[in-house]
Request: fold
Amino acid sequence: MGIEKESYNPDQTPKKHALSLQLDVSKFEKATDEEKKQADVMSESSSFFRDGMKKLRKNPLAVFSIIVLIIILATIIIAPHVVPYSYSQIITVDGRRDKSATNMAPFTYSKMEQAYMAKGGKVFPHIMGTDELGRDYFIRVVYGTRISLSVGVFAALIVLIIGILYGSVSGYYGGKVDLIMMRIVDVIYSLPDLLMIILLSVVLNEVIKPSGNGFLAKLGTNMISLFIVFGLLYWVGMARLVRGQILTIKQNDYILAAKVSGAKGSHIIRRHILPNSISVIIISAALQIPSAIFTESFLSFIGLGVKAPMPSLGSLASAARSGITTYTYKLIFPSIMIGLITLAFNLLGDGLRDAFDPKLRR
Amino acid sequence: MFKYIVKRILLAFVTIFIVCLITFFTMNAIPGGPFAGEKAKSPEVQAALERRFNLDKPVGTQFLLYMKNLAHGDFGISAKTGREISATIGTKFKVSARMGIFAVILAVIQGVFFGSIAALQRNKWPDRVIIFVSTLFTSLPSFVLGSFLLVIFSVKLGWVQAWSPQHQSLILPVLSLAAYPAAYITRLTKTSMLDVLGQDYVRTARAKGVRSSKVLFVHTLRNALIPVVTYVGPMIASILTGSLVVEQIFTVGGLGNEFVQSITNRDYPMIMGVTIFLAVFMVTMNLLTDIVYKLIDPRITLE
Reply:
């Protein structure tokens, strides 16, 4: 096979002696540096992650949603330091409470503020007007966004952790363990989640009373019960996904190879199975964030959300319904924020899936 | 097949039993009974009331008694109004169900129609517009959409009368209920349709000269709708139960409203009744979905 047949021409007598090796000495010279460079691989090696990022950058909707999320994030971090009002503070002018500053339209000033400005004082504009108690609406929307976002991210984390642990154990060990664990999942999956949230909210309200002045105490028991419910009920979808992934990956030969060479179960899960399924899992966790924000706003809406005066986007929208005909802007601002955040996360999740899901890659 | 159905029905019963168990014992964990909020009663009245609702017996006995009555279709009577719970659920559910059925029909028709168009016109402007609009609608909570619909069409334009006993116009609540599932079905139909359009049997049908309308309706759409069916079953249950918010916005006196009220009233028998009713409903819908799924797609082998 290795003999070069083209170089042998039977019509031509060889130039040298027939028994000579007929070597071309120049072919055995050392390569110069220039030649070595040419032999180098031209393109940089591309990792799975870098490849996906490149695809993601080409997706205008995903880039747009990343920009939107960054702007929102920057606003909710910076705004409380710039705007001189706090979310629970009723507007005061020159040290006195301003009773006329209720339900103002965006970028308007109350009479007291106008008088104060005429005297040369400075008043920070009410970018989104004020609410029915005379609180600056912009800062309330900012804090509401903070709450809604952190609820979304935190809930997604809870779901991710529990789902991965449960799903990987069930999927890896299979057999009786899997059967029992999946029956439990089936049962939890068929529980009416909304009813359970409401029931638990009612019960936990009585059972736990967070003490002190921490973040959790400010959020109120309803939020804690929301987290608990997420931890108890919502992980089942994630657990099913992880289990499905593992069942497919388990069929691969490299798992068999690892088992044959004596690797432990936990090692195989950590080193072989999770890295291969992590992209699908992360994407589905990213899509969990908007759904958690939805649930939170829904609960706030029916009055089971964060504790007043702490606002969330859902409770702001709910409160705005009472004066909806005259002060429509109060509904519009929080609604737009909910819409923007969920839209951005949904588009980003779709973009991530297109870029990173191994099944969709061609 | 038969074995599978029997297995699923058994699982459904287990689920329902666990729902009963959880509901019963969480309700009992709450301090303060259903009669705690009202005016002070004499101990005799209190004792009589507790005897009437079996609250004086141990919790285990209470639960067994309740399950026994439940097996006879008896949900007991409301601790607040004294009316039969099964009767209340019956009338309230009719209101919710009427609204929900219209919403389901609207969502399915709209979703399948636009989803198919998006798939057939892939990467052209109709596809982009449809997918953008449906993504937008999946990002709006139903209460936001409902409030806006109410403001725009009832208050500002005055086209549709707001809900009252005289004007039971279903248009706005049905629209706000249907928006999210319709958008979801659109996206689902599009993906599964694209999947089917790429299959060999569709290409074969085209190559042998089958009319394009027949290819679309017989070969493509029928197969593309299988994932949609699996979504529609649980959706029916969630629309009928999740209409809580929409019912509040449009002040429709349905089952959702009743449930929230019973929670605030601490009406234990009522809460349990509604929860168990809804749970049975949802579990049944899931069961039916799985069986139908198996029937319409023989390729699927279940366990």
Observations:
- Chain B touches chain A at residues 11-12, 14-15, 18-19, 22-23, 26-27, 29-32, 135-136, 138-141, 143-144, 147-148, 150-151, 155, 241-242, 244-245, 248-249, 259-260, 263, 271, 274-275, 278-279, 282-283, 286 (CB under 8 Å).
